[in-house]
Write a structure and sequence with these properties.
Elements (H helix, E strand, L loop, with lengths): L3 H11 L34 H15 L3 E11 L6 E6 L4 E6 L1 H4 L11 E11 L4 E11 L2 H18 L17 E5 L4 H14 L4 E5 L7 H14 L5 E6 L13 H9 L4 E5 L7 H5 L2 E2 L3 H8 L3 H36 L3 H43 L3 H43 L1 H6 L4 E3 L17 E5 L4 E5 L7
Parallel strand pairs: 3-5, 6-7, 6-8, 8-9, 9-10
Antiparallel strand pairs: 1-2, 1-4, 2-3, 4-5, 11-12, 12-13
Helix pairs in contact: 5-9, 6-7
Length: 483
């Protein structure tokens, strides 16, 4: 069922559309006042609730354009279907909203109740309940607050990591050998930069790396452009610039990935983004921040007039230095000319010196050879006197004598030992048990080999071995008699 706000909105739209052909409004087309219904039911045009809601929906969707609405989020619902349903409200009113999955997937906002947003939507009506609603096609933060908060949070995070520290920033070259400018090729920033560089120092080679500086995908393009410029060996300075704009326009330069790429860049980077009052994360991470693109061009380029003055001063100093050097070398040349002698005189002197050295060398060799010969003869005589041949003959004779004496001593010793061995054998025979057995004695042993020395060593039934001089008897003890 339509609520009162819906009736009021319909009323504001109906009036300018009275003359249009609309079956839903046919009963109001003849006058500004509705006709009284007669009792004849056949003249009535009766709508079902579904028809009424459908025609009301068509009326809203056809005659209200796509519009922007700003308000505060409440009653946010995100079912498993992926669609978003919420209420958009302000201090005096509220309206239901639906944002389907095909549209909300592109939204980067982290929505929650209380967020203030701006939506682009079509006015519609949910036929099932007769509720007037907005079909949202696009949503963005309703102002500076959320973007500023995200900016401050990222700034604190990177500052805590040390990406803004001055100690890690690289020095800019005094005069770039080749400058890479990353910006939009059609913007005012590049025209300002080129104009200043042409005026101050037109001989600096410039490579323009075009990319988008605003909108979706701009941050990625900027990131890739910085990486490209840093990879080129002939580039020794990078200028990242664009003109001014709102925080939304400059938001691509507040990208975390872009900030980290700038921080890791080996080539010095100058940022010149927006106006003097505009600050982005890229400004803090870059090696130098210029207030505007024009100011950046002034900073990175030397002044041609200063260079001309320096060249003129150097020219004058060089001219004076050359004159002084020529004068000094002229004086030295004249001095050397006076000292210079004919080379023939020097050659004669050197030839005489060589003759003297040749004579001294020959005398020295003769003297050394004579001394060596005397030394050799003396040591030859000493060596002959000390030859070991006589000692070897004497040693051989001594060895033969000692050998004879040793042989005799061994023979004598062997005979003595044989004699001792014979005597010991005779003594051993006298005390041998076999000798005793031959005299008629016997030895009794148990099966274990133990000798029976007493009657107490045996028991009745024991088997004994009786050893005789010519053999052995096996006996069994039947009786024991002790003395």
């Amino acid at each position: 069922m339509l609520n009162l706000r819906c009736h009021r909105h319909i009323a504001t739209i109906i009036h300018p559309l009275k003359q249009e052909t609309n079956p839903f409004m046919s009963q109001y087309s003849d006058s500004s006042e509705p006709r009284a219904l007669t009792a004849n039911t056949s003249a009535r045009q009766v709508f079902s609730v579904s028809e009424l809601n459908r025609k009301a929906k068509q009326l809203l969707e056809i005659h209200l354009p796509l519009l922007w609405v700003e308000g505060e989020i409440s009653n946010l619902s995100k079912p498993s279907s992926g669609h978003w349903y919420f209420t958009l409200k302000d201090d005096g009113a509220q309206v239901r909203c639906a944002m389907f999955r095909s549209r909300n997937t592109a939204i980067k906002l982290s929505l929650k109740a209380g967020d203030k947003v701006r939506v682009r939507a079509r006015v519609s009506l949910y036929e099932g309940r007769g509720d007037y609603q907005l079909i949202v096609e696009h949503m963005e933060d309703a102002g500076f607050g959320l973007l500023q908060k995200r900016y401050e949070d990222l700034k604190k995070q990177l500052e805590k990591e040390g990406l803004f520290e001055q100690i890690r920033k690289k020095q800019l070259p005094p005069s770039p050998l080749h400058l890479a400018v990353i910006t939009s090729p059609t913007g005012a920033a590049i025209r300002d930069v080129l104009s200043v560089l042409k005026r101050r120092f037109a001989s600096i080679p410039i490579s323009i790396i075009p990319c988008s500086v605003q909108g979706d995908g701009a941050a990625q393009q900027l990131l890739e452009a910085v990486q490209l410029a840093d990879s080129l060996e002939h580039i020794d300075l990078i200028l990242l610039c664009r003109g001014g704009g709102s925080i939304e326009d400059l938001w691509a330069f507040n990208n975390e990935k872009l900030a980290r790429v700038i921080s890791a860049c080996e080539t010095p980077i100058v940022s010149a983004i927006g106006h003097e009052i505009d600050f982005t994360i890229a400004d803090f991470v870059a090696d130098y921040r210029a207030p505007t693109p024009s100011a950046a061009a002034e900073i990175i380029s030397p002044n041609r007039s200063d260079y001309l003055r320096t060249l003129q001063n150097n020219e004058r100093r060089l001219h004076v230095g050359i004159q002084q050097s020529l004068t000094a070398h002229t004086r030295r040349l004249r001095h050397l000319q006076r000292l210079l002698r004919h080379p023939g005189q020097q050659l004669n002197s050197w030839a005489q010196r060589m003759d003297q050295l040749e004579i001294r060398l020959a005398n020295g060799l003769k003297s050394s050879l004579s001394h060596r010969q005397q030394w050799l003869a003396q040591h030859s005589r000493q060596l002959t006197a000390l030859t070991p041949s006589k000692k070897i003959v004497l040693a051989k004779r001594r060895t033969i004598e000692i050998k004879h004496r040793l042989d005799n001593a061994l023979k004598h010793q062997l005979e003595q030992q044989k004699l001792k061995l014979g005597n010991a054998a005779e003594k051993l025979t006298l005390v041998s048990p076999l000798h005793t057995l031959r005299r008629g004695y016997a030895i009794a042993r148990k099966p274990s080999g133990r000798i029976v020395r007493s009657t107490h060593d045996t028991e009745l039934g024991d088997h004994l071995a009786i050893l005789l001089s010519d053999g052995e008897l096996k006996v069994e003890v039947e009786k024991i008699e002790s003395t």
